[in-house]
Each structure stands twice: as C-alpha cells, then as structure tokens.
Write a structure and sequence with these properties.
This protein has 349 residues and is mainly beta. The protein is 14% helix and 36% strand. It is built from 6 helices and 22 strands. The radius of gyration is 38 Å and the shape is elongated.
Length: 349
C-alpha cells in the first residue's frame, strides 16, 4: 500500500455525498484543515495529471477558487473522454472490416484503417500488390476436358479426362513461373472444387457406356437406345460424351449420332442415343459396340475431397496464379501493405 495512503488511512471517517450518479467515482485526498474546501494540494496534483491525459479541459491549480471537487473534476474528465476509435481527431475510420489494421498516412497526418487483404479471380488470378512470400488461400474450379476438336461421333471420338494432381502455378508479371505446387487429390476429379487447404468436392462422374444397361425402342421413324435410370445422375444436361453430340432435347427430338435425355423435366437421368448405323443391333450388341467409350455427368450429390494441403506464398508485387484443372481460380491474398508484419502473419498461418 502506498505510504501516503497508510499515513492518512486512520483519518478516513464516514463521508456524506449528494447528487451521486451511477458513473461517479470515489477518490481519497488528504484533508487539510486550512483549506475551506477540505482538499489539499495533493488533489490539485491529481487534477493536473488528468489535464495531461484528456486535452481540452483546463482547471485552475487552486481548487479553492474553481470551486471544483475531486469527484466533479473526475466526472468532467470522464464526460469528455472518447468512447470510439473513430472519435479521435487523428484517425479516419471508414467502413471497418475484420482484420483491418491502423496505418499512418503522412499526407493527412491521420491513422487510417487499412484492409490488408485482396481478392483476384478468373482463368488466371492477376494482381499487382502481392505481399512478399505471404501464404494465400486458393480455390480452384475443376472441369473435365475433351481431347481433339470437332463434334464427337463414332468416327471422331474425343476422349474425356480429369486430373488426379492439381498443379497451382505462381508466375510473375511476365508470366514466368516462379513456383508450382502439386496437390495429390487422391482420385481422378472430372468436375468440382479443390482448395489448397486440402478440402474440396467432386461433382462429376465418368462412366463407361458399355457398363450401362441399354434398352431399344422406336420413336416415330427411328430406333432409339436408352439406359435404365442412372441413380446418381443429376437432373440436368450437364454432361459430355466421347462419341455422341450432347443436345438439350428429349427422346423425340434427336438427330443421328446425338445423345439426349428421356424428357426435359424429370427423367434427365435416363440417357437416350440415336445412332442410325446401329439401329439393327440388339441391346447387347449395342452395349458391346459402345464399350470403352465414356460419358461424364454431373452427380446428384457431390462427394467430399480430402487430401494434403499446401501453403501457396505470393510473390512481391505482380502475381499471375493459375492451375491445370481446366477452370477458374480464386485467390484471397495479403497485400504488400502487410510486408512489414509478414513474419507475424506467417506465425499464425
């Protein structure tokens, strides 16, 4: 306990006060019989200290002439205090967001809230204010691809492929690759999303036409082969075929060497093929002829991807980041404004 408080503790007696508010505070000061107000120069020193902390309030050093009590003075200090950071005269706070920091702007002599984060997306995520070596978060959209060109047909088969390794390349402003990070997805993905934190979803499935059960019927003046319902195929036309042109039409609107659906409402999980050159084949012979050729379709319910993630640091300044999954990329990164605290950020990532 401070010596002054010990010295005068035996002088503390019952006290009375009036007009108290819930925000009032209690202060102990040395009693001075020679002072009409009952407070000594020790209380005056307390007020002088308060003046140094809270600007804009001026008190006379002589409490006797100002007729101020310690309690009254403290309450004035409290009423003039700033409650919010934005109330301070040397700050400019505009639409603050999570993880903003204060950065000093010498041109305005103000502390300004600063967002250290940036976002870029597209087939190539391009930005010019990357932090030097600070890890970013990456989300890659994956789509299957078809080899060759032209319309798929029995005479122009176009194979469908996906990826099992996701390669994320980080290039500089001249598109010179500085680093490539490879993430083993654990399976071949034909469509979906993969992130560098090791999470993602697989949305598409590749199936051999010869593994499906085919039936045969006549529609108007042509023969149609159709599958039994594919239980996990989504009700959509989001699919590709290696040997037939995919058309968004029902079974009665197909032309030769086209594949569509039984109807466009609730039976899009039943695939229909018109191939006039195979019209005379039985169901089993058609199945044999189609064996080894694939269709890739969107599934009703995506499956979860789980794999080992990888940190992807950005380059200082210009960055061009892309991947080999035949889709767009989205990058959330720390800007070069974070370079001065890069080591701190790395410690928490």
């Amino acid at each position: 306990m401070p010596d002054d408080l010990i010295k005068y503790s035996d002088a503390i007696r019952d006290a009375e006060a009036s007009g108290l508010n819930t925000s009032d505070v209690f202060a102990i000061a040395q009693e001075d019989a020679g002072s009409p107000t009952g407070y000594s120069s020790k209380a005056t020193k307390f007020l002088a200290i308060a003046n140094e902390v809270v600007k804009g309030i001026n008190y006379s050093s002589d409490l006797q002439t100002t007729n101020k009590t310690v309690i009254g003075a403290i309450n004035e200090v409290k009423s003039s205090a700033k409650e919010n950071l934005s109330d301070l005269s040397d700050t400019t706070i505009t639409t603050p967001s999570n993880a903003d920091l204060l950065a000093y702007d010498s041109s305005t002599s103000k502390w300004v809230n600063t967002d250290l984060k940036g976002t870029a997306s597209g087939s190539i995520a391009t930005f010019s204010n990357g932090g030097d070596g600070i890890p970013c978060s990456v989300e890659c959209s994956i789509s299957c691809s078809q080899a060759g060109s032209g319309t798929p047909s029995p005479s122009n088969p176009r194979s469908i492929s996906g990826i099992s390794n996701l390669d994320i390349s980080v290039a500089d402003g001249d598109m010179v690759v500085q680093h490539t990070y490879t993430l083993a997805l654990g399976e071949t993905v034909y469509g979906g999303v993969a992130r560098n934190d090791g999470t993602g979803d697989s949305t598409h499935k590749k199936v051999d036409l010869g593994s499906l059960t085919w039936n045969k019927t006549t529609i108007s003046d042509y023969t149609l082969f159709y599958t039994n319902a594919i239980s996990d195929k989504a009700q959509s036309f989001n699919f590709l075929c290696e040997i037939y042109k995919v058309v968004e039409t029902w079974r009665g609107g197909l032309n030769n060497e086209e594949i569509g659906c039984w109807n466009t409402e609730n039976a899009m999980n039943i695939l229909c093929v018109r191939d006039d050159s195979k019209a005379s084949l039985s169901e089993s012979d058609f199945t044999t002829a189609a064996s080894g050729k694939y269709v890739c379709y969107e599934m009703t319910t995506p499956t979860t991807l789980s794999f080992t993630g990888e940190k992807i640091p950005t380059l200082s300044g210009n960055n061009n980041i892309y991947h080999n999954g035949n889709g767009d990329i989205e990058v959330n990164y720390f800007t070069d404004k974070a370079d001065n605290i890069a080591e701190l950020i790395k410690a928490f990532l």
